[in-house]
Design goal:
The chain is built from twelve helices and 15 strands. The protein is α/β, with parallel strands linked by helices. Nicotinamide-adenine-dinucleotide is lined by residues 32, 92-95, 97, 112, 115, 283-284, 300, 303-309, 315-316, 319, 357.
């Protein structure tokens, strides 16, 4: 049995293929959210059919649709439902910020407050964002061909609930001068648990962790480095090296192929993961996962709710479908099934099918639902 509440069960007997029953909470959210989550569930069902797993879905409201129904972006009941699942699949929340009634209220009542509440409420401290360059989409990468080389395939493991964004802060007048202060605090337990996640994930990949810090200046980074070294002792197969954050920002655009797993604290991860996603060139392709100490995770595309194209069958569902593949791998330990989804995506791109956001000359333009169908048909 795995999962937060042991509801995701394995049902298999000696000599039989392992099959699973998994409870997934879906949060379609706003804008394109319902369309892309629908396609991801379609792909999960296809995987279930082929490999004999059962995925049971419970839908909850979050974001603008929850505000419209309950007056708040996330109710306690919805959070409780999410907590009882094995994993959560999220589309996106929010509307047109300059032109929506959802934003005429205090920040804690806006759609995006639901995101913060669910991350906090489920203690999702580990954020994983892969940055993978598909050779078929290489023309969208802003880097030169000689830098791209054979492409890149990295994940950024960002600490999500500590550091500068959660430290004490204040703005006050000191000796007549306005002064603002933010504090960057990490304790060894917070560092250890994210480092363990990074090493666990490296074990499923190329077994290489680069820990990024600013240990030449910051105390918190020196403790970070020390604890990461300790954790590395439990993973003799994984190669660990350290890199200063300013160097890492340069290396990402000079030699992105050198990275496998980048492990870093909250603010450095915020900046580096955006940089890494930009060099893939296609926001509709980028998946992400946020995990807690168990195998429980929340999986979502890196993009927002794209209200400009909502309901038009124009959204690229691939980021959400790849997020569902991450769910199979990280929450359910179904590596073979995750790889089947990833290969199906690869195949569809190789065959030249594209949604509008990644469309190029000579390709075949398809809508959201057709892209989902094409991927399903290639899941084997
Ligand atoms: P966005 O990511 O929604 O859209 C940026 C641009 O990319 C738009 O032109 C959009 O059409 C396009 N785009 C995004 N995803 C796409 C997809 N899957 N397929 C094709 N095109 C896609 O960012 P934004 O416009 O800054 O924000 C819109 C709303 O989303 C806001 O309310 C914002 O607060 C919210 N948001 C939510 C999340 C989340 O739920 N995790 C994250 C970011 C932004």
């Amino acid at each position: 049995m795995i999962g937060n509440n042991s509801v995701c069960v394995e049902k298999w007997q000696e000599g039989e293929e392992k099959t699973m029953i998994c409870r997934i909470v879906t949060i379609p959210g706003d804008g394109i959210g319902p369309e892309i989550v629908g396609e991801a569930c379609k792909v999960l069902d296809k995987v279930g059919q082929i490999y004999g797993h059962e995925f049971h879905y419970t839908e909850i409201l979050m974001g603008g649709c929850s505000i419209d129904t309950y007056g708040v972006p996330l109710t306690d009941e919805a959070l409780e439902t999410a907590r009882k699942a094995d994993a959560v699949l999220l589309g996106a929340v929010g509307g047109d910020v300059g032109n929506s009634r959802w934003y005429d209220v205090a920040p804690n009542l806006r759609p995006e407050a639901g995101l913060l509440a669910i991350r906090k409420g489920l203690n999702l401290f580990a954020n994983i964002r892969p940055a993978y360059l598909y050779k078929e989409l290489a023309q969208a990468c802003p880097l030169k061909k000689e830098i791209i080389g054979d492409g890149f395939d990295m994940v950024i493991m960002r600490e999500l609930t500590g550091g500068l964004y959660f430290g004490e802060r204040c703005t006050e007048k000191i000796d007549g001068v306005m002064t603002a202060k933010d504090t960057l605090t990490y304790n060894e337990n917070e560092i250890r648990r994210i480092a363990v996640k990074a090493f666990d994930i490296a074990m499923k990949r190329k077994k290489k962790v680069i820990s990024v810090d600013k240990a030449n200046v910051l105390d918190s980074s020196r403790l970070w480095r020390q604890v990461v070294e300790e954790v590395a002792g439990d993973y003799p197969e994984v190669e660990l090296s350290h890199m200063l954050v300013d160097n890492c920002a340069m290396q990402l655009v000079m030699n992105p192929g050198q990275f496998d797993v980048i492990l870093t604290e909250n603010m450095f991860g915020d900046i580096l993961s955006d940089e890494a996603s930009m060099i893939t060139g296609s926001i509709g392709m980028l998946s992400s996962a946020s995990l807690n100490e168990t195998k429980f995770g929340l999986y979502e595309p890196s993009h927002g709710s794209a209200p400009d194209i909502a309901g038009k069958d124009l959204a690229n569902p691939i980021a959400t479908i790849l997020s569902a593949a991450m769910m199979l791998r990280y929450s359910f330990d179904l590596d073979r099934e995750a790889a089947a989804v990833e290969k199906a995506v690869q195949k569809v791109l190789e065959e030249g099918y594209r949604t509008g956001d990644i469309y190029g000359e000579g390709c075949m333009k398809v809508g959201t639902a057709q892209m989902g169908d094409l991927i399903c048909a290639r899941c084997i």
